[in-house]
Protein 1
Amino acid sequence: MNILDIIIGIVLLLFAFAGLRKGLIIEAFYLASIIVGIYGAMYFSDAMSEWLSELINVAPEYLALIAFIITFIVFMIIIRMLGRIISGLVEAIHLGFIDKIGGFVFGIIKGALLLSILIMVLNIFSDGEIINRDTRKDSALYPHIENIANTLYKNHELIEESMEKSFDKGKDFFEEGFDKIEDVVETSLTK
C-alpha cells in the first residue's frame, strides 16, 4: 500500500458515504436522470424547438441548443422527482436501511468509475507520466481502478445498444401511458 492507494481509498470512501447518505434509489435515479436527459433531449428537442419557435424569436441554431438544454433539464427534473417519490415510499415501508447500504455500494462503484475516467484522461494527455510508474506499479488499487474505464470503452457499443433498447422500451411505455391519458380525457369530455 502506498500514497496512491490512500488517495484512491479516501476518494472511494467519500463517494461511499455520499451514497450512504443519499441511498441507492436517489443515487441511481440521479445517474439515470443524466442518461435519460441526454437521450430524451436527443429524441424530443425537435418538438421543443418547434414549440419554442412560437414563443421566442431566436436564430434557429440557438433555438436548437436552447431546446436541447431545456428538454434535458425537464427530463432530469422528472426522473429525479420520481426517484425522490420512490425513495420516500421505500422509507415509508421501513426499507430505508437496505436503500442506504445499496447507496454505499453504489457510491463506491460510482467513485471507482469516475476515478477510472480521470486516470484514463490523465494518461491520454500526459503519456502516463503524471503518476510515477513505480508508484503505479506498487499500488494495490490503481491497476483495478484504471481497468474499469478501459473495459467500458472496449465494450461501449454493447453498452450503447443495451441502453438504446432500454430507452426504446421506456419511450414506448410513456407513449402508451400518454395515449391512455388522452383517451380518458377525450372520453370524459364527450360525456
Protein 2
Amino acid sequence: MSGVVDVKHKIKRVDRFLKNTHLYNERVVIYKALAHPFIDSLPMLAIVVDWSGACGQDYHLLRASLLVDVRSIVIYNMIVEQKDFDSPATNSLFLDELYEVLR
C-alpha cells in the first residue's frame, strides 16, 4: 500500500481486509480465478500438497502447489488450527475445496 497515510492507518486497512467475511467466503472462487491461467496452459498437471507450520505452533498451513518447470506455483492454501491438524475432516475439506479450484 503506497501513499502518505500513517502506518497505523495502513495496518487498520489490512486488518479490515483480512476480517472481510464476504471475501473469505469467496476465497475458493478467487483461488480458481488466479490459478486457471496456469492450469489452462499446461498439457498435464503435477500438484504437490504439503503441510507446514504457520504462525507458531498453534496453526498449520496446508498448501497445494502446481509444479511448473523448475518452480512451484501455489494454487490453494488453508490455515488449520493445531487441534485439526491432519484430521480426516480437514483433509477431506481441503481436497473438496481444491477440487473446486481445479474444476
